[in-house]
Design a protein that fits this description.
Strand order of the largest sheet: 1-2-3-4-5-6-7-8-9-10-11-12-13-14-15
Number of strands: 15
Structural class: alpha/beta
Strand content: 5-15%
Shape: elongated
Number of helices: 16
Length: about 500
């Protein structure tokens, strides 16, 4: 006899929810569910049937199973041996009676991934305003070309929409889905520049966005986004596929009024230049921003200066924890030999935990500025300053700065390793949190002395890495001395303090 607790809907849903996440039973077209278990539960008793069927059909890939509910199509979809790529070529669209068979379980579907639209012509009988999936909360169009009949998937409950390519009815889609919270448009191929206005217009129709990933937007779209208190994350562009950014000319748009992005926490950019992003930063405030990342193809000295100055003025000084700026394209050849004042611009970020800068310019840094920066970043755990030039930072400057940041675990910097201005035998300081040391040094004069400094004062750095390939042999010498020091039976070294948690 069934226990009375199993007749309580909330208890059943809790059990079925566990089955959803506990593993897989492979069934073509069904993803992420224990389909066999739910099918068996649906046949067990009437009390289980509806709950089990809802979970069985909750998450599907393509529409094969729904087409299989149509009597005429069932033997074709489930022909033996099972064929994952059944053909609908030459088949007539669904008839009026067959639409009811197709819709029998469509109301149960909550998530769909579309990887093929081969059979969509069978749906041409449905009027354009038809909602086939009224409970649908998530849809992913994985095709790299426009999907016909995409309007049939629109649901008033849709929360999550992923589009590999921009659909022709994109504006209509986002307008009809008033509850949309997560929108991803990953189309960054040829011809995307002609569609950027379409994306911007569509984004302006979204009133409840929480996360947004898309190509570059126009100023009107940015103005709209600044008013959304629900917005938490914006990612513009796509890694390794940087579309040409549009020019944002504020001089022609005097009526734009950007309000603070009050709850935006994450801001990511992949772009060809920094001009687009800098313009956005110069006219925006991000009082809740915690993570800022940018991968740019080309970055001139002036563009870099303007970018970091704009970042320092966007009201994120007391919240920003992560800054990553990478120039992944070729070096921009400029007659000017100016160095970046980047570090000075970033001193205001008192909560900084991660700073990674990989640029094609010299970064102004010396012992005093490094000490000032580390004093202002007491929480920092990762510092990476990839510089094309050797800085005047010395070992004494490095260890004076390390005293100010006890949690630092990763350090990459260029420095002067010829001027050895510290004696490890007279120093009692040890930094027990640092695990990774990557240096771009000047000519290495005394590899054994450098190894002794690292061995005595950085006890958890097992070897030193190098950021420039020609220096491989020099650092093989240092690492060889480090290995020898660690192999001694009695080192005389006493590690003060326990290593920090990673």
């Amino acid at each position: 006899m069934m226990h009375r607790a199993l007749l309580v809907p909330d208890v059943l849903l809790e059990i079925f929810g566990f089955l959803q996440t506990s593993g897989y039973i492979q069934t073509p077209g069904l993803r992420g569910t224990r389909s066999g278990c739910f099918a068996a539960l649906a046949r067990t008793c009437k009390a289980f049937h509806e709950f089990a069927m809802n979970e069985l059909w909750a998450d599907i890939v393509n529409l094969d199973q729904l087409f299989g509910c149509v009597t005429r199509l069932h033997p074709i979809v489930y022909q033996k041996p099972v064929c994952y790529h059944w053909s609908s070529q030459g088949l007539e669209p669904l008839s009026e009676p067959e639409t009811h068979q197709f819709l029998r379980h469509s109301t149960r579907v909550r998530s769909i991934e579309i990887t093929s639209d081969t059979h969509f012509h069978l749906l041409s009988v449905f009027p354009s305003e038809t909602c086939l999936f009224p409970r649908l909360t998530s849809i992913s169009f994985m095709l790299k070309y426009p999907v016909h009949y995409s309007h049939l998937f629109l649901s008033p409950m849709l929360r999550n929409c992923y589009q590999e390519s921009i659909q022709p009815d994109f504006i209509s889609m986002v307008t009809r889905c008033a509850s949309l919270e997560h929108l991803t448009v990953r189309s960054f191929g040829e011809g995307i520049a002609d569609k950027l206005s379409l994306v911007s217009d569509g984004v302006r129709s979204c009133k409840r966005l929480v996360t947004l990933t898309c190509p570059p937007l126009d100023l009107a779209a940015w103005e709209h986004l600044s008013t959304l208190r629900t917005l938490v994350k914006v990612a513009i562009g796509r890694e390794k596929e940087k579309v040409m950014s549009p020019k944002l000319d504020l001089s022609k748009n005097h009526n734009f009024n950007f309000t603070p992005f009050v709850n935006l926490v994450f801001l990511f950019f992949h772009s060809d230049t920094a001009v687009y992003l800098t313009t956005v930063l110069q006219h925006s405030e991000f009082p809740s921003l915690k993570e800022f990342c940018m991968d740019v193809s080309a970055l001139s000295w002036m563009e870099a200066e303007q970018l970091f100055r704009a970042l320092s003025l966007c009201k994120a000084c007391h919240t920003l924890e992560t800054i990553v700026v990478v120039c992944s394209g070729p070096e921009v050849h400029e007659p000017s030999a100016n160095s970046l004042t980047t570090v000075s611009h970033l001193l205001c970020f008192t909560q900084l935990r991660v700073l990674r800068l990989s640029l094609h310019h010299s970064i102004i840094i010396n012992n005093d500025l490094l000490f000032e920066a580390m004093s202002g970043w007491p929480h920092i755990v990762w510092l990476e300053l990839v510089d094309r030039e050797i800085t005047p930072v010395t070992f004494r400057g490095i260890f004076a700065a390390l005293r100010q940041c006890p949690h630092l675990q990763w350090l990459q910097i260029s420095m002067d390793t010829v001027n050895i201005d510290i004696d490890p035998d007279t120093e009692s300081f040890q930094h027990t949190a640092l695990r990774q040391l990557i240096l771009r040094p000047s000519d290495l004069a005394d590899g054994e002395a450098v190894a002794r400094i690292i061995f005595s004062m950085l006890p958890y750095v097992n070897r030193v890495l190098y950021s420039v390939y020609p220096e491989l042999y020099s650092w093989q010498e240092v690492n060889g001395h480090l290995e020898s020091l660690r192999s001694l039976p009695v080192t005389g070294r006493c590690i003060t303090g326990a290593p920090s948690e990673t």
